[in-house]
Write a structure and sequence with these properties.
Blueprint: H1 5-31, H2 37-60, E1 64-68, E2 72-74, E3 78-89, H3 91-95, E4 102-109, E5 112-120, E6 125-130, E7 134-137, E8 140-141, E9 154-157, H4 167-178, E10 183-185, H5 190-198, E11 204-207, H6 212-224, E12 228-231, E13 243-246, H7 248-261
Parallel strand pairs: 1-3, 9-10, 9-11
Antiparallel strand pairs: 1-2, 3-4, 4-5, 5-6, 6-7, 7-8, 11-13, 12-13
Length: 262
């Protein structure tokens, strides 16, 4: 387990925010009968968790900047460091009472992601990683899977939602993947999908149209767990939208399959 001062700061902030979200998640079932109630409630829960994270991180590391899902970019006096925060990843799962959502926090330092946390509060699974210090889930070292044959591999991905666009390309890519790999999964949380790849539960993952707060923490985890993390749009990870990761063989095989669908 990583016990650096940085990881302590990040873990403390995430745990504070998680207590708020877990209380709110317990109220979701009572709101399902309202047409607009659950959506409004989740929006408030999201903003509240983000405020808790920001306040805690600002107190511990004054001057660091922020890239946040709800509040956007906040420039700090320390131009070398900034946090990437998603206070509630897997919002649709949260909204429907499905216990598969998380808080994701990562630190970017000098244009590289160097530390990350993904906390699955509903299942109490804490995924953490710091550059040069390894990746862990609940004190157990994480390693990407050792599978070498695509026909044995389980691939996870994100599906573009209504209004997002890119559906024809996605369907072509999905078709190419389905003919080459054992099976696919869509679980509704990019951050947890990537953490699952780092933990060896999935073999590779791809998604287009993401934001850095969706994958920044996972990028550190994949590399520290012995995998490869890359982009599909040719950009550096700190500014990318389309990402791909996996164990080395899985990532390469998945990338090759996606190319055939372009």
């Amino acid at each position: 387990m990583i016990r650096s001062p940085l990881m302590t700061v990040m873990t403390d902030a995430v745990m504070k925010a998680s207590r708020s979200l877990k209380r709110d998640f317990g109220e979701i079932e009572n709101l399902q009968v309202l047409a607009k109630g659950p959506g409004d409630f989740v929006s408030k829960a999201d903003h509240k968790a983000e405020s808790i994270l920001r306040e805690s991180l600002e107190k511990a590391r004054p001057g660091y900047g922020f890239v946040m899902e709800e509040s956007g970019v906040v420039h700090g006096t320390d131009e070398s460091n900034r946090w990437h925060i998603d206070p509630l990843d897997g919002t649709h799962n949260f909204l429907r009472g499905i216990p598969h959502w998380n808080i994701s926090v990562a630190l970017e330092r000098d244009n590289q992601f160097v530390a990350g946390i993904v906390y699955d509060a509903a299942k109490d699974e804490l995924f953490i990683a710091e550059k040069g210090k390894g990746a862990y889930v609940n004190n157990r070292r994480m390693r990407v899977s050792g599978r070498r044959e695509p026909t044995d591999m389980l691939i996870s991905m994100g599906v573009p939602h209504i209004g997002k666009g890119g559906h024809p390309l996605f369907l072509r890519e999905l078709g190419a993947v389905m003919t080459r790999f054992a099976n696919v999964r869509r679980m509704g949380s990019a951050a947890l999908d990537i953490a699952y790849v780092a933990a060896g539960r999935m073999d590779a993952y791809w998604e287009r149209g993401l934001n850095t707060w969706d994958f920044a923490a996972g990028a550190v985890m994949i590399r520290e767990a012995g995998g490869t993390f890359g982009t599909l749009d040719g950009k550096q990870p700190t500014s990318a939208k389309d990402i791909i990761c996996g164990n080395e063989v899985g990532e390469q095989a998945l990338r090759a399959a996606l190319k055939t669908a372009g």
